[in-house]
Here is the input.
Amino acid sequence: MLERGDVKHAAQLTSAPAAETEPRPLPAYLRLVRDPKVVCAGGFILFLVVLAIGAPLIAPQDPLAQNLLNATLPPVGFADAAPGFLLGTDGLGRDVLSRVIYGSRVSLTVAFVAAGLACLIGSLLGLMAGYLGAATDAMISRLVDVWMAFPPVLLSILLIAVIGTGLHSVIIAIVVIDWTRFCRVVRTETMNQAQMDYVVAARTIGFSRPATLFREILPNVVPVLIALLTLEMGIAVVVEAILSFVGLSVSSDTPTWGGMIAEGRQIVHEAWWVLAVPLAALFATVVAFNQLGDGLARSLDPVLRR
Amino acid sequence: MTAPRLAIEALSAISLRANNAPILRRVSLAVDTGEVHGLVGESGAGKSTIAKAILGIIPSQVKITGGRIIFEGRDLLSLSANELRAILGRDIALVPQDPSTALNPSRRIDAQMTDGLRLKRGLSRKAARLRARALLTEVQIRDPERVLSCYPHQLSGGMRQRVLIAAAFALEPKLVIADEPTTALDVTVQKQILRLIRALQERHGTSVLFVSHDLGVVAKICDRVSVLYMGKMVEQGRTADILQNPRHAYTKALLAANPRYDRPDTGLEPTSPEVIVALRAEIAAFDAGSSTGEARDG
Here is the structure.
């Protein structure tokens, strides 16, 4: 038995050694800045965002101005290049650089808006399925199963055929198809977290179920969510390029990378740069989104990060 | 004599998974004001089910079939979710078993410790943080400021358990349920934690229901002990009495099973088959008796 007097004595003995805690953690922004993946990929995305927003100021030429006398001029550095057209011109004499810069507007809008909406809808349903109990879970999960049984490309083409082409149609198509991805992942992660004692502990403090879900569980799902979100942004960029490649995206007087690739494909033997430049832009953007997602997931996870 | 702080009366529960097998068989126990009451038994004896029933977090495959849990004159089992939520945290708090999963890995210690203070006491963020700081000092944490700004994975298991104890005592609850609070810790840390619980409990006059499978731990901290076997209360009494003069064969077996460093050759024998047979017979007789009893009642 522990004696009463012993307790006071014990109090002095039980002081924790200072070595039990590690040094104060770095603030989140510093940790992110230290990760080269996040810095490089994030820097590139930021650069793209600046290009897209400032396109009218940055682009050297009018992206729509045609001049058949200047058609298929090669990029600067090759024979017959013209100094005003840094990356050459396409079959109609339009400046490729300016068109790629303007094309980033559509790509980034779709990336952020479509992926963001898919994330919002998918994760809300996923959180509900993972936490609210077997009946809700069964309903949402069956819905996802049925949804995923449709071939995605067919579904998007069908959808656009019904609601018409345009930027918002592309966004809707991507959201309608890809929310299931978020739903599945978030549901599983929510279920894992809901098993943890800290969730029970939160309930015993007297947290309501919604408060437990959003204050305790959600923060632990966020790292996975952010990784998935940036991956999804890369996917959205590709899907938009595919849809504009087949002419189902925005109208043809707006430059898009997919549209440029389609045009470049026809004249690839005379002017390879018309194909190569938007392709490179697309490639770099998707890689940057993927790397950013990977880096962010690692930096934001409280257990993995060091 | 005043009414006990917590009275469990003839609590029965069955498992819906395992063919409605009984988990608790009319268990009664009382925790007095300012008392540390040990609840002992092997795994599956129903200790945790009792703790969960008090906290209203019974898993869906377990069903309470009878009995009452009286806390301050109210039956916790009959309260609505909202009424129970008002009591939990403020009057009844939990020190959980595993400090590695009981803290949210993505929230800093200060955020987690101030939850209850802000939710139940309506303290401002700043006031709650000051209180949390004082609480950490009370559980012998030397540099509370640093611990408050840490994430759980940056603390050792012992430190985390201290934080959890501080959080449990934060709102000066009347009853603390300690669910095997030292099981996941190594022996030296175990001792510190036990002292800490005892010290806080004495300072605040808190009642503690101390759930454990370890009679050695119970002997150190509890005033009274209830021994549970297969959901049935087999023996109840003052710790010293039970440890020195166990009346029930199962308690004797449990005591003999406790490893002792001064008798390294003992304590590894399994509980003798006669004891187990006798116990099963006792429980079967009890089940038969109580089912006819219930039939008569109905």
Residues 6-91+173-297 of chain B form a domain with the Rossmann fold fold (CATH 3.40.50.300). Strands of chain B lie at 6-15, 21-31, 36-40, 62-71, 74-75, 92-95, 175-179, 207-212, 224-229, 232-238. Chain B has a mean pLDDT of 83.
